[in-house]
Specification:
The structure is a single chain. 73% of the residues lie in helices and 0% in strands. By secondary structure, it is mostly helical.
């Protein structure tokens, strides 16, 4: 959906930041293209050339937010890392992305606006959780085919593992019930979830 002709356009990052700030402050429905242009400066023509429209702009924000996790993680499959190490690394990156204040803000916008704008939910899912889950399904299926684990349904197992990793931490963050966990706590949660998951599927 994004119509950018150049990811190197110096105005691109400024527009993304202004749009994200407004989406988080006012919500998706209440943020107009005019308001974004008023905050960042420039012209509508530039925004439409780079992003196409408002949904395209929101999609770009989600893409940028997930790039740090999924670009590195998905490139690793099938990779040289031992199976357990790959899973723990994935769990750590998933948590790092999940607890970022920016991710929490995006999730809040999606949940509040999805009933009126269903495309927001689709965009968020396709460019966020689904990318990670697809990598995880492939990794688990490969481990099963190699006899490392017993898994009749890699897709179901992938969903279970991601749920174990996020546990109730994501919900607490969204509800504002706790602060962002430290890097040490993230690694501890990722390691514990990986250990428990592997104990249930390893041959």
């Amino acid at each position: 959906m994004t119509h950018s002709t150049s990811d190197n356009d110096p105005r691109r990052e400024a527009i993304l930041k202004a749009a994200a700030d407004l989406f988080f402050e006012r919500g998706y429905a209440e943020t107009s293209i005019d308001a974004i242009i008023e905050r960042v400066g420039g012209s509508k023509r530039t925004l439409y050339r780079l992003f196409g429209n408002k949904p395209g702009l929101f999609e770009a924000i989600i893409r940028e937010n997930g790039k740090s996790l999924f670009a590195e993680t998905t490139d690793a499959a099938p990779g040289p890392l031992p199976f357990e190490t790959a899973l723990e690394q994935f769990a750590t990156r998933l948590l790092e992305l999940t607890v970022q204040p920016r991710t929490v803000a995006i999730y809040r916008v999606v949940v509040s606006e999805a009933p009126r704008f269903p495309d927001l939910g689709r965009i968020f899912f396709e460019h966020g959780p689904l990318r990670g889950k697809e990598w995880l399904i492939q990794t688990l299926a490969r481990a099963a085919s190699e006899g490392i684990v017993t898994l009749p349904d890699p897709e179901a197992a992938a969903g279970m593992f991601m749920g174990m990793v996020r546990n109730d931490l994501q919900q607490q963050m969204i509800l504002g019930l706790r602060q962002t966990p430290s890097s040490a706590e993230i690694r501890q949660i990722a390691r514990a979830a990986t250990t428990v998951f592997l104990d249930g599927i390893r041959n």
